[in-house]
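# step 3/5: fold
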Amino acid sequence: ISVTGVQTCALPIFRNVLAVVSLFFEVSSLEYLSLTTFILILYSMPIFVKIFAWIILKEEISLLDIIVILISSMGMLLIFNCSVSEESGIGMIYAMSGAITYALSCMITKKIRHVDSNSIYLSYVLVLFLISLLNYPDVIPTRHELGILFAMAVIHVAAFLLYLKGFFHLKTSRAAVLEY
């Protein structure tokens, strides 16, 4: 295999590993954090995308972008300061790690301009669902509930793949905000 072949194969694999690690951190943080704090931290991902797009992809960053990043960061710090005594530090670290690793996986996706097959994305969603069930051993979903969850996974994957089609046509930081 040539060096180019290794790079072509290694980057999508690394991107997928980052995405799985991100989801693991996000699901794990839910055990320690309130939903409000979790969402706040998770929604910080576009800030990291903007910074990483500037550093890694050499996308432009304007003065307005810098001001928005600073104001957003100060707001997050203020909220963290108010809730840090009530929330688990490990949960915050997990959620922040999830946001950062997901932002990095976005950079790789944009750089390689490669999208995996639908079945791979569906597998991610299903595997993560099964892993999250391990946190609740007393919960055994019925066939009907599993059917609904499977349908939700298919809809999620279809929506995500449509999102990715537009992702390659927009600046990375603009596309990251649209994901939410």
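# step 4/5: annotate
The radius of gyration is 18 Å.
# step 5/5: archive (pending)
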